[in-house]
Amino acid sequence: xxxxxxxxxxxxxxxxxxxxxxxxxxxxxxxxxxxxxxxxxxxxxxxxxxxxxxxxxxxxxxxxxxxxxxxxxxxxxxxxxxxxxxxxxx
Length: 90
Fold this sequence. Notes:
Distance between the termini: 69 Å
CATH architecture: Beta Barrel
CATH class: Mainly Beta
Structural class: mainly beta
Shape: elongated
Oligomer: single chain
Number of helices: 0
Radius of gyration: 20 Å
Strand content: 35-45%
Strand order of the largest sheet: 1-3-6-5
């Protein structure tokens, strides 16, 4: 008699749910207060004017306006320069 093993025998076929990271509002789109602009791990994109950084590095709007992306050379703590993307709500 061939039949399957009892349920709960292991983690076969199970996986963690996806985190749905990435850009949620692109440049030029309207942002309301509290709307998520980018979900990220680490600060790949740095917050500018009109946005804040959440504890899981999510960037969200703190005022209404249009989303704007810019790039800028920032000075790191060890003296090197790094090209960073900055997101703002204007």
